Design the sequence.
């Protein structure tokens, strides 16, 4: 099992060519391990597998085919037209799939592992906790090409294809430098472009690091490393300066002056050789890695200035005598200062560490302030809703008939809030009347079911209206098992909802509607769910037994809001 694995993630939108690229990688080197999230899904979706049980429990038998297996087509319709269902599916499947892929990768002998993950934006945080990602390869294609490829898949409809393209986004993350290659051509074009990935990848042995990688996360670490390297270099130079004699400093100065003269190579070739021969054992060359025996330098003929062949050195020395003397004094003084460089640099290191700690505390403080602001906003919002937008009226009537007919009182309250906003004399343009906006024909139908005289029903009377409306909700709940269809039938009529459920354009299982063709009814269902959610936040599972006013009402809203925040955050 390899201890230094490289993990490379292949991602891209639907039909961009991720699977084709993965197959080419397998062909290029059979020692590479390529894991496909879709393949993992197929295994985990099999009957009796871990995810099979979880999904059937969550979404019901409506996602199964005739053989009892999970149907891709039915599952698509269930999740792609409901953001709530899609988020729920991702939260259930992503942890299991990623954990399974990583376990296979870590237990393999492969040095390089490719993980093909379509929705990387939604998985990156969880994946980073499991492995260190070395690179990200992104495949893209134009919308026209992707749509054409999607339509070639079995069981794909235009509606679903458009929806898939609408909800999937390109991978974006500031912690990664992503290499993106466009794949609008055929297989051969993509195969040729694969060389671009490998050429600039960390897989290439000639490269110490890949073209990609976490640049921003490692930025601070690299800066710290550079500081430490500079410190080491300075310390080494300090030690060398301490050992150099006064005469060597003068000779180095002469060397600098000689190097600045523009001497023709043809005229001074012999002199250059002589100078190089005499300087070679003396000067401390940067590229020379051998240690010089400084104690024996005094015995070398090259240091005997009387025997040297450079007869003009004395005149040069006279010219620079004053400068050299100052330079030597400066070097001696600097040697004392450099003695303390280590402690100074240590202080700089401490400063860097302090700054890092300050940044951490700053982030913690920002996080705390953000949480407080969010909680405060939720708190004040819920109090406002309870005080003005979502009041509780006609409590006695709602409690009485919701208990009698087995209907959630908060549902009755939400319907009443949306239908009339608690106005008992409200009349609609289609002659729907009262608190729950009951139509005269509906009232006649309910009167027959209750075995009472329809003419005796006064829909402007609050108690009568609540009684008729609540009983009608019970009747709809007996005809439809999904509450959204109940709300849709209350607004759009039983006949229309039954027709929609039979149409595959709007329902995949004949039980629930993944889309509602009537804009008015769709908007109505959303309003009822919004009101119901507000009442659940304010009152939870307990429905108030009496109407509160003033400070008592405010105190009750505060208590329920705090309880909601604690339960959900």
Sequence:
């Amino acid at each position: 099992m390899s201890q230094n694995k490289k993990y490379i993630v292949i991602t891209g939108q639907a039909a961009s060519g991720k699977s084709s690229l993965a197959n080419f990688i397998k062909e290029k080197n059979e020692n590479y391990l390529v894991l496909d999230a879709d393949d993992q899904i197929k295994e985990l979706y099999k009957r009796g597998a871990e995810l099979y049980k979880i999904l059937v429990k969550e979404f019901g038998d409506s996602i199964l085919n005739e053989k009892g297996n999970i149907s891709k087509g039915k599952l698509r319709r269930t999740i792609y037209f409901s953001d709530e269902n899609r988020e729920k599916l991702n939260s259930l499947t992503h942890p299991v799939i990623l954990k399974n892929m990583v376990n296979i990768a870590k237990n393999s002998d492969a040095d390089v592992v490719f993980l093909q993950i379509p929705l990387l934006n939604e998985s990156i945080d969880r994946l980073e906790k499991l492995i260190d990602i070395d690179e990200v390869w992104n495949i893209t294609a134009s919308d026209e090409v992707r749509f054409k490829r999607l339509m070639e898949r079995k069981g794909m409809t235009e509606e679903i294809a458009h929806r898939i393209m609408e909800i999937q986004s390109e991978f974006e993350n500031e912690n990664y430098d992503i290499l993106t290659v466009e794949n609008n051509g055929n297989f051969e074009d993509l195969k040729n472009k694969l060389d671009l990935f490998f050429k600039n990848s960390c897989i290439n042995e000639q490269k110490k690091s890949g073209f990609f990688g976490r640049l921003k996360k490692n930025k601070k670490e690299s800066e710290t490393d550079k500081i430490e390297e500079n410190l080491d270099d300075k310390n080494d130079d300090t030690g060398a300066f301490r050992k150099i004699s006064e005469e060597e400093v003068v000779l180095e100065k002469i060397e600098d002056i000689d190097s600045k003269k523009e001497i023709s190579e043809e005229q001074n070739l012999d002199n250059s050789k002589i100078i190089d021969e005499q300087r070679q054992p003396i000067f401390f060359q940067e590229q020379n890695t051998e240690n010089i025996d400084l104690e024996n330098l005094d015995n070398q003929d090259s240091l005997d200035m009387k025997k040297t062949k450079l007869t003009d050195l004395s005149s040069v020395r006279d010219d620079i005598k004053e400068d050299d003397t100052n330079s030597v004094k400066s070097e001696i003084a600097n040697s004392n200062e450099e003695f303390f460089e280590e402690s100074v640099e240590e202080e700089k290191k401490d400063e860097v560490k302090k700054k890092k700690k300050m940044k951490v505390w700053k982030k913690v403080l920002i996080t705390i302030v953000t949480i407080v602001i969010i909680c405060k906003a939720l708190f004040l919002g819920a109090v406002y809703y309870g005080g003005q937008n979502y009041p509780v009226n006609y409590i006695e009537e709602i409690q009485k008939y919701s208990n009698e007919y087995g209907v959630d009182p908060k549902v009755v309250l939400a319907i009443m809030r949306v239908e009339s906003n608690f106005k008992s004399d409200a009349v609609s343009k289609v002659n729907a009347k009262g608190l729950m906006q009951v139509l005269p024909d509906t009232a006649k139908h309910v009167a027959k079911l209750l075995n009472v005289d329809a003419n005796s029903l006064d829909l402007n009377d609050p108690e009568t209206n609540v009684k008729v409306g609540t009983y009608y909700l019970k009747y709809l709940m007996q005809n439809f098992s999904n509450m959204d269809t109940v709300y849709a039938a209350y607004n759009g009529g039983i006949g229309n909802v039954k027709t929609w459920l039979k149409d595959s354009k709007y329902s995949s299982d004949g039980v629930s509607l993944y889309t509602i063709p009537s804009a008015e009814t769709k908007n109505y269902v959303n309003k009822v769910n919004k009101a119901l959610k507000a009442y659940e936040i304010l009152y939870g599972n307990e429905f108030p037994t009496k109407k509160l006013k003033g400070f008592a009402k405010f105190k009750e809203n505060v208590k329920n809001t705090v309880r909601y925040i604690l339960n959900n955050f």
